[in-house]
Amino acid sequence: MLTISQLAGYAGVTVRAVRHYHKIGLLPEPGRDHSGYRTYDAAAVVRLIRIRTLADAGVPLARVQELLDAGPAEFTGGVEEIDKALRAEIRRLQDTRRRLARLAAGEHLALPGCVVDYLDRLRGLGVGERYLELERDAWIMIAAQVPDLIDAVIAKKHEELDNPDMVKLYGFFTGEPDWRVGDPRIVEVADVLERLMIRAVEAGEVGTDGFDDQFVALMDSSMLEAAPGAELVLAILKERGWKGWTRIERVPAGRLTTELPPS
Hints:
Largest sheet: 2 strands, antiparallel
Oligomer: single chain
Number of domains: 2
Structural class: mainly alpha
Radius of gyration: 33 Å
Number of strands: 2
Strand order of the largest sheet: 1-2
Shape: rod-shaped
Order of helices and strands: HHHHHHHHHHHHEE
């Protein structure tokens, strides 16, 4: 007959683990000898080894009892079910590791890979990091709104970069987007944007963003707060009959009714 220490040693576990298995009902508590000590037999060693083997294989303790008492067919089915759950957990952890690796490499945890690639392409065009931060934050919000469409949206953005006007537009954002009244780039940006807007209207791409008005307003306000020059560009476009930054709309052209911000 074995003491609890000897049992633990034969099974390769700690005495504390044996006591825990007693407590949760995995290992029946044996009777005590005349001195009041628990004594174990070979069957206890075998059961404890089986418990340890299942636990080491990743089987939750809540399922160990079920498998210990199962017949061959039930045991096989239970193991396959646990294996399926473990493989799903492994995929989740691998995805988490990939996200962490991107973060460690300077990428952004909240962004899908296709957006990270797009931002890298903009970076390759010389777009400044300050403006890239604005784009990043906007794409984080967009990806959360339309997760199923983000791949198609980004594919379209890559197509747009084949347009020389789009490349020229991004060429204005190599530094800080903090233009003021009188900066010649403001009119140049408005000219390029107007050509792109006309192209979008002719292609039937206006009003197809899929966002509600509140989200569009949020995106516009975020851009206007971060880049004061954007408000000046929009003011010029409004005079020419255009409205919106996130969503393009035609409006009656006319003179400005609001005063431009001071330089």
